[in-house]
Amino acid sequence: MQTNIRRRSARLLLAAGALIGACHFAAAQTVDTDWPNMPWDQVLAEAKGQTVKFWHWGGDANWNKYFDNILGDAVKDSGVTIESVLIDDTAAAVNKVLAEMEAGQKTDGSVDMIWINGENFVTLQQAKLLFGPYTDKLPSFANMDPNSSALQFDFGHPIEGYESPQGSSQFTMSYNSALVAEPPTTVDGLLTWICENPGQFTYPALPTYTGREFVMEIMYRVTGGYEQWQGQWTDEKKALWDQKSPMLWDALNKIKPCLWREGATYPSDKAPMDDLFANGELAWTFSAGSGESAASVLSGLFPDTTVTMIFDDGTHASNHYVAIPVNSPHKAGALVVANAIMSCAVQLAKNQPSSVGDLPSIDIDRCPDEVKAGFAAINYGVGGISPAQLAAVPILPMGGPELAKAIEDGWRVNVLEK
Q1: What homologous superfamily is domain 170-316+394-416 in, according to CATH?
Q2: Domain 40-167+319-379 has CATH 3.40.470.10
Q3: Half-sphere exposure of 349 toward its Cβ, with a 13 Å CA cutoff?
Q4: Domains 40-167+319-379 and 170-316+394-416 alike in fold
Q5: H or E stretch including 199?
Q6: Residues with Cβ < 8 Å from 177, sequence gap 6 or more?
Q7: How far apart are CA 347 and CA 345, in angstroms?
Q8: How far apart are CA 227 and CA 64, in angstroms?
Q9: pLDDT at 27
Q10: Each residue of 187-236: pLDDT tens digit?
Q11: pLDDT at 253
């Protein structure tokens, strides 16, 4: 009898131990081992207390405040802290990941999240160095139109859930109306204006993103339209580039002596160009959407005579994203940050001219009524251009990463070094 009791007791202890072990196993789920087959509350549990090293462009004070304050506050309640790592070029973060993985740092990388798009995304994705897919597993994915182009392709490269939208941009130009009486509304008109007003215009050196955006606007017009540059970079496309790219270099070299400092040097990026515009050395600068220049007017950087415009035949548009390297040690925290970025509240706060004026990537109609009303009430004021005005002109698609590289390499040889 006592033996049977002892046996039953032993079986109960084993069963209890197994139950405790099972509970312990469930509690020990991690993003590294169990994603995507783990509930969001487990992601939140793992993320609590993590510091996410977010590598992003640091050339704009308004954007830096957004990351530290608006986005930082949005994840604070989840116990996540954002540590901004300010860089001049996204390639610095990409190269860091590549170097660490080559050195064998496969779980303890220095980069938890990157503000990324275009060829930098393609570089890491093709090397299989991005964590994912994750985008459609985030709770805030409910705010996205699942058919949105922002979820499909980046510079013609399939995204497949390995980066999540942060915002969208459309190439716009801002001018100082005290210096520009009759602003040109076409690319041909702008090229003429530049040499009729020497020293008042320039653009950032390539391979900066903003510099390439400007050059691409010129290229689309002088080579006969954007349609021919869409699609895969085939041998035929390369031959077309070899045939037509001299038209681009000719146009850029014609305005070169008319540029600021006679084209002997170029601003290193958008921020130095903005500074030149702010102090009156330039009559023009570039922006990326409805409220970016308005935000600079409100912050006191730009004069209140700033006006933003787009060409009559449209400008190209793109999206910008965040991605998580495969060797990030804080993937759970990075997922929480990515989810917050796609939230209606953060997108609304980011779109305010008092913030950065960045265009939203979400489908506003999917947001609560108070958020929809908030977007509708935004006043872009001095220096801004409304999304409705942007929507009134054509949106020109971006080319693929091979075209971007051809532009950058060709500009260096055929314009900068001439």
Answers
A1: Periplasmic binding protein-like II (3.40.190.10)
A2: no
A3: 18
A4: yes
A5: none
A6: 183, 305, 306, 307
A7: 6
A8: 36
A9: 54
A10: 999 999 999 999 999 999 999 889 999 999 999 999 999 999 988 889 99
A11: 98
Give the Cβ contact number of residue 152 at 10 Å. Answer: 13
Three-class HEC string of 295-344: HHHHCCCCCCCEEEECCCCCEEEEEEEEECECCCCCHHHHHHHHHHHCCH
Measured CA to CA, the distance from residue 146 to residue 126 in angstroms comes to: 24
**What is the pLDDT, as a whole number, of residue 20?**
44
Residues lower than pLDDT 50 in the chain: 1-6, 9-10, 12-26
Name the DSSP letter for residue 19.
H
Q: DSSP letter string over 344-367?
A: HHHHHHHHSTTTT-PBP-S-GGGS
**Domain boundaries of the chain, sorted by first residue:** 40-167+319-379, 170-316+394-416
Contacts of 405 (CB under 8 A, 6+ apart): 119
Query: Could you count the other beta carbons within 10 Å of the beta carbon of residue 198?
Result: 13
